[in-house]
Design a protein that fits this description.
The complex is a heterodimer of chains A (about 290) and B (about 325). Chain A is an alpha/beta fold and about 290 residues long. Chain A contains nine helices and 14 strands. In chain A, the strands form three sheets. A six-stranded mixed beta sheet of chain A has the order 6-7-8-3-9-10, sandwiched between helices. The two termini of chain A are about 30 Å apart. With about 325 residues, chain B is mainly alpha-helical. Helices cover about 75% and strands about 0% of the residues of chain B. Chain B is built from 13 helices and no strands. The chains are: A alpha/beta (about 290), B mainly alpha (about 325). Chains A and B meet through helix 2 and helix 3 of A and helix 1 and helix 7 of B.
Chain lengths: ~290, ~325
């Protein structure tokens, strides 16, 4: 569905945001995870046809996005939620969504109205639809962003950091919504919150410094960390310096650490069941150490 | 495909119109320009009308001799109304330069139209829609121009309303249609081009800036430049006060006096020419071709600017 081959993007002369990215993204929900500044947004923007790559090829739903025609074809089946969502503060949610619906070519008045009502209901904004966007909270604005991306039954949904700034309840609601969408279209979810991926994506890629470090299923990433995750309880002294501490719990007379790495043989470390976050952190640690 | 694009242009225009109406800057400035111009034109005629009808000052003997000529009070008042109409048309020659405020003030007001999309981050979202830069630009221009022209209707209606009221109160006769036609011709041939140029110039110049605030000063500079070029390029031949352009001069020269035509049968039939020279009889005549050339030149300049703005969008935003 989406094929990315040797994709590079350089800003100016020095900043290399993407360095030879190769990716195959099929249907369903695909997660793109990586630290801030890893190149996720750059990749998303290229896939959405908003940014020209420096080199490499990108085919989205069979369209070459390096051509104007291909870009337009992708945009006509695309739902996109940018990281920095912008809305007109002087419009109501309904007016804004109607505007987007018209741009997407939903011209039949009755069909448009139906779709707007359904989408507003879906994101829980039906009651506030007539209110000006300037009065909306950050979470509500995010939901308007999601709603506009869902309009027009997109075949490809690109959502960049959709859960940023949302409270836990809204995050769960959004994840469920995206999972439901993934049943009928490709959803590409970019985030630096691993939990979002673990709860919803069947495939993921880990990206850092413009390179893909991992591509595969969440379980494969978890498996990569098996045997490297430990629980270590000490009287208070910190774990060895080369272990990555991912969690610390202060008990009454001891401190319990969750660590990633290879503890020395004589230590009290007990193997622990790895999570997706452990897998991700293990991968990042490996990348940093150049292994 | 074309129909789809037209619908997208209209959707962008409608939204721009709606937002512009709510933000208020363009509305306030356009209304301000209209009110200033209207007040400028009406000042002298209204002051004259406040003195009331001359008929009230006539003695019984004078009224009798008028009556013998066939000039009843109704006819006299109607002719006085027509003289006031002439006086209003004459006054518009003096005040018409005030419309140049549109060239000066509208560019800074409309320059923020596209930068606002960048400022609020909406441009990113719009760029992800199945529209291209030409559609976007056309929609923005159409919406802004529509808003300016829509708002301009209200001061015009107010102008006609005040004039109608004054004429009715003073002479018991309303606005002659010829005067309405005169101002509509003036508005369509010169008012609309000036307002459209000012508004479009702002939108096109503002395209290069990142926020509404940063676009205001360049917009003002563009307005000053536009005003200078307009007067230099389009000034009617001959020496006219206030730099009246060819289109306005054309309409002024075509003014037909109702008062002269009205008085003619009673005073000395055939003497008057039914023609009041608003610009003076010495003024070189402005031909239709000169007006068309002016409008074509204006359209060409705006088209060139629009093409430059489109290329800028392509270059800077890949849109």
């Amino acid at each position: 569905m989406i094929t990315v081959t040797q994709l590079t993007k350089t800003y100016g002369r020095k900043v290399q945001a993407l360095r030879g990215v190769d990716l195959e993204i099929g249907s369903g929900m695909f997660g793109l995870v990586g630290p801030n500044g890893a190149g996720k947004t750059t990749l998303m923007r290229i896939l959405a046809g908003l940014l020209r790559p420096t080199s490499g090829t990108v085919s989205v739903l069979g369209h070459d996005i390096s051509t104007g025609k291909g870009k337009l074809a992708v945009k006509s089946v695309l739902g996109y939620l940018p990281q920095e969502l912008g809305l007109y503060p002087d419009l109501s949610a309904y007016e804004f969504l109607e505007y987007v619906a018209l741009l997407k070519g939903i011209n039949d008045r009755a069909a448009r109205r139906n779709q707007l009502d359904e989408t507003l209901e879906l994101v829980g904004l039906a009651v506030d639809a007539k209110r000006r966007l300037r009065t909306f909270s950050g979470g509500m604005k995010r939901r308007v962003g999601i709603a506009q991306a869902l309009l027009g039954d997109p075949q490809l949904l690109i959502v960049d950091e959709p859960t940023a700034g949302l409270d836990p309840e809204e995050r769960v609601r959004l994840r469920n919504l995206l999972s439901a969408m993934a049943a009928r279209c490709t959803v590409l979810l970019s985030t630096h919150i691993v939990e979002d991926i673990s709860q919803s994506c069947s495939q993921l890629a880990v990206i850092d410094h413009g390179r893909v470090l991992f591509g595969g299923s969440p379980s494969a990433l978890i498996e990569a960390a098996r045997g490297r995750v430990w629980t270590l309880t000490t009287a208070g002294e910190p774990p060895e310096a080369d272990l990555l501490v991912v969690a610390t719990i202060h008990l009454q007379n001891a401190t319990q650490y969750r660590v990633i790495g290879n503890p020395t043989k004589g230590s009290q470390a007990v193997p622990a069941e790895p999570s997706l976050e452990d897998g991700y952190l293990f991968l990042m640690q490996q990348a940093k150490s150049g292994a | 495909m074309l129909l789809k694009r037209i619908r997208q242009v209209l959707a962008i225009a409608r939204t721009e119109f709606r937002i512009g109406l709510r933000r208020g800057a363009v509305v306030v400035l356009t209304a301000f320009i209209g009110l200033v111009l209207g007040a400028g034109i009406l000042l002298v005629p209204v002051l004259n009308m406040q003195a009331g009808s001359q008929f009230d000052e006539f003695s019984a003997e004078q009224i009798r001799s008028l009556d013998q000529m066939g000039i009843t009070e109704t006819i006299f008042l109607s002719l006085e109304r027509d003289e006031s109409a002439d006086s209003t048309a004459l006054s518009s020659v003096q005040a018409w330069f005030l419309l140049y405020l549109g060239l000066l003030l509208l560019p800074p007001a409309t320059a923020g139209c596209i930068p606002a999309d960048r400022q609020f981050g909406v441009l990113e979202l719009l760029r992800s829609q199945p529209i291209d830069g030409t559609t976007y630009l056309a929609g923005k221009l159409l919406g802004t121009l529509g808003l300016v022209l829509f708002v301009a209707i209200f001061p015009l209606l107010l102008f006609f309303g005040v004039l109608e009221g004054m004429l009715m109160i003073t002479f018991q006769h309303g606005l002659p249609f010829s005067l309405i036609g005169f101002f509509l011709r003036l508005g369509l041939l010169d008012g609309v081009p000036i307002l459209v140029s000012g508004a479009a110039l702002g939108v096109l110049v503002g395209i290069a800036f990142r926020s509404r605030r940063t676009a205001v000063f360049p917009g003002l500079l563009a307005g000053i430049g536009a005003l200078y070029i307009w007067i230099k390029a389009f000034q009617a031949p001959g020496v006219f006060a206030n730099g009246i352009d060819r289109a306005a001069a054309f309409v002024f020269q075509g003014y037909r006096s109702r008062a002269e035509a009205g008085w003619d049968p009673y005073i000395e039939p055939g003497l008057t020419l039914f023609h009041l020279e608003l610009l003076g009889s010495e003024a070189p005549h402005v031909e239709t071709g000169q007006v068309l050339l002016m409008l074509a030149g204006l359209l060409t300049v705006l088209l060139i600017l629009a093409v430059c703005a489109r290329l800028w969008l392509k270059w800077k935003e890949d849109f």
